[in-house]
Amino acid sequence: LCVNDKVTRLGSASRINEQCIQLQQKKGAKKAKGEAGGGGCKRGCPFLHGKAKQDKLVRRILSGPMDIEDIGAAARKAETCGYYAARKAALDADIVFLPYNTVLSKSVRETSGVRVKDSVVIVDEAHNIADAVNNMHSVVLGLAQLRAAKRQVLGYYNRFKNMLSPQNGRSVQMVLRLVEALLGCFAAEQAAPGSEIVTVNDFLSKTGIDNINIFRLSEFVRETKLFFKVAGYTEAVAASESSGEDGPEKLGSLNAVMDLLFALTNNEEDGRVIVNRGGDADQIKFVMLNAATHFEALVREAHAVVLAGGTLQPLEDLFLQVMPTVDRAGVRTLSCGHVINRKNLLTLTIPKGPTGRSFEFVHSKRGDPEMMLDLGRLIVNACKVVPDGVVCFFPSYKYA
Question: Which among 191, 195, 182 is positioned nearest to 147, based on CA atoms?
Answer without folding.
Answer: 182
